[in-house]
Task: structure prediction
Amino acid sequence: MNKKTETWSIVMVVHDEAEMLERNLPLFLTQVCDRQVDVVVVDDASTDNTQEVLKRLKAENPQLYSTFIPQGPYNPLRHRLALSIGVKAAKGEWIVLADILLPPRSDQALEGLAATADDAYGCEVVAAYSGRKSTNVTPYYRTWNTMEDCASILRKVERRSRLGHRGRWFKRRRGLYDAVATPRNRVHDLLHYFDEDLRGSRLLAVRLKALFC
Result:
């Protein structure tokens, strides 16, 4: 495939994050990249004005798509389900799993992911990491040739608590990296590691490995 006609899709899930969408989603929508780019936002039963924000931004950005999943019974794998729905709606040959709370720090971030994937032709995963406390806007990119090689690093090793559906507190875990990309035919293998319940010695082992890799 001609790289100029290849599409990269950025997929993210939001819940009651209208303010973050207003602030950060334009940073995803204005990426400078030599590929075609679309952005898919999955609204996970938001009760704020998320839908209004998305409607306005979609009118201004034809490459932006959104979908909605209704509130349902508690499901520890709900975030993985929402991402799977977003992937289904995406058009890209490559899928970038992103977080609205971790926006790209430069308009070249997606181009960096794509160029890194090109340089490591045949890789199955490419990730970007900039370090939230760093003032450097140039991300560090890393690739893995097989999904198994990166499994322990991509498992959720960082946690942040937030108010969930029906007022329930839950812990949402995210990985070490700002964004993770993989070819479309491998994305469901990658999603297997999202929301994996790691505890005790297994969680400690993953955190230690992340420190030295």
